[in-house]
């Protein structure tokens, strides 16, 4: 929920699970799945490297805060 809170105001109205969005209370990822929270490109899956798209941030989010959170949970995460 901390991540969703940083992803911009009004996401509870936008992330409904309809219209190519994931439900705000459910996390899922998928290859070329526009209805997932995180979408991995087909080339990324095929080549084992590339990009992913976090589809949850809204346009009114702070890009510095969100980029920092994504880096912490993907690159810098240490279990």
TrEMBL record:
Superkingdom, taxonomy of origin: Eukaryota
Keyword Metal-binding among UniProt keywords: no
Extract the coiled-coil ranges from the record: none
GO cellular component terms attached to this protein's record = cytoplasm
Catalytic activity, reaction form: L-glutamate + NH4(+) + ATP = L-glutamine + ADP + phosphate + H(+)
**Residues of the GS catalytic domain:** 1-79
Q: Which UniProt keywords apply?
A: ATP-binding, Cytoplasm, Ligase, Nucleotide-binding
**EC no.?**
6.3.1.2
Subcellular location, record wording = Cytoplasm
Q: What is its main location?
A: cytoplasm
InterPro entries linked to this entry: Gln_synth/guanido_kin_cat_dom, Gln_synth_cat_dom, Glutamine_Synthetase
The record's subunit annotation is: Homooctamer.
Q: Which family does it belong to?
A: Belongs to the glutamine synthetase family.
Q: What is this protein called?
A: glutamine synthetase
- Species the sequence originates in: Solanum lycopersicum
């Amino acid at each position: 929920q901390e991540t969703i809170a940083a992803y911009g105001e009004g996401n509870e109205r936008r992330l409904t699970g309809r219209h190519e969005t994931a439900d705000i209370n459910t996390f899922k990822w998928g290859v070329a799945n526009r209805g997932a929270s995180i979408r991995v490109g087909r080339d990324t899956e095929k080549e084992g490297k590339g990009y992913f798209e976090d589809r949850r941030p809204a346009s009114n989010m702070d890009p510095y805060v969100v980029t920092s959170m994504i880096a912490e949970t993907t690159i810098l995460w240490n279990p």
